[in-house]
């Protein structure tokens, strides 16, 4: 664990939940798993305050708990989830995603759950004043909640969600061992653990959406139209809106269980943020039209991609990709097809008919797919030649490409473009001595040696010693330079965490320096307009507002670096 991580998590918890909760979090970070009694004794807090602080942290999925023996008694031990605490600074990005995909009502529901933590649908209704809604707003609310659950922006809480994965595996293993009449052999233990792991993988890959229930709806009974959520999460009006031939049939309507509690699915939201970064990468490398095709591919992979730990997507037919491209997408000038004999013979369909438009769109989409699969990054792969082909997204390769791009950008900002050239040379050629680095990077030997030492001190390069003799005399050793992605990421993460902490400290100091003015601006008479602020006070508040806005932008940029370097990497462990 980085020392900068502890300080940043404490600041985030203090800003969101206050000093009492921060004291509990600081102790859990420092000591690890603790029981309630030890938390009370080591923090010096009252029992009620400690319980309430833990309840708040469990409510927002920052703390997990598990039961275990301490002497002769069964105790409940609590442990901290640092990854979810770090996601507190990503709230703005999550809200922007919810507004983009779910609309205004979906954003209201999503913000309510994010603010209050785990909530039931009935609790969200009460918080939003559902009783005062009109008929149209009530219908929008039902559609928004169902769509949030269907697309997994929010996920249902189960009994095992507040228990760590290690504890769940240990409990499952203990239950399997209890079924045996004798002590298990090493081979039996391996089989038990394999079965538990396979069951966990099966639950992860399951497409069943917890929290939804199905209800038979008679469409032919008339009355007000009802709303059903389709397979793609789109609302479908049923009832009076159906054709006469379909009104005598029954349909299964997906409803959200009002008694089920839901929480924000952070891992799923990170998938959407990762996909945005991949789209932006190809938009900058090629053009906006290529990003349109890639966005259609990633949209098709989203239903079966729950978290960023998936290394590759499922294969997708090219025809399905083309069909999911928006009909109003402007792909006419995306690729120069003058060298294609078929395209040159037939030309561009200039007709105004929809068939001609679709034909041109299909030609350009297939051409862009071919460009994407030939890209040197290796993110889009063609896995089958049948028909128009099957395509797959390599998320593991995408994480490596975006990570290297982020590291190069960091080296460029910290040093210069010459340093970036040296880093890329070492990344491509692996271990090289100073002379080979100088030749490959086209630099004088003295200059390359200076750059290599600067990169080593910053943690972006390293050396390996190869002795020529058995005495390992430094003067008779060969020193090879190389770059280690793990060490580079560690150096970048330390800098990003420290930067976010420093920026938040600056915001606190600026607010503290104007504490009296901020308190005055929040008084009831000032808000009501009966008492006015002086021009100087208004200017000072405007300066503070602009400064906080700039600080928020800086925090989002550094948090995006955390996403690229750690959160979106398949198989990444805790910081």
Question: How is this structure best described in words?
Answer:
It is a single chain. By secondary structure, the protein is α+β, with helices and mostly antiparallel strands. Helix content is 58%, strand content 13%. The protein has helices at 3-17, 19-31, 36-43, 47-59, 82-86, 91-116, 121-128, 135-150, 165-178, 186-205, 266-285, 288-301, 318-323, 341-346, 354-373, 395-414, 417-429, 434-440, 445-458, 485-513, 515-521, 524-528, 535-567; strands at 34-35, 63-70, 73-80, 119-120, 154-156, 212-218, 226-229, 235-238, 250-256, 261-264, 316-317, 380-384, 390-393, 462-467, 477-482. A three-stranded antiparallel sheet has the order 1-3-2. A three-stranded antiparallel sheet has the order 4-10-5. Strands 11-13-12 form a three-stranded antiparallel sheet. Strand 12 (380-384) and strand 13 form a beta hairpin. The longest helix has 33 residues, at 535-567.
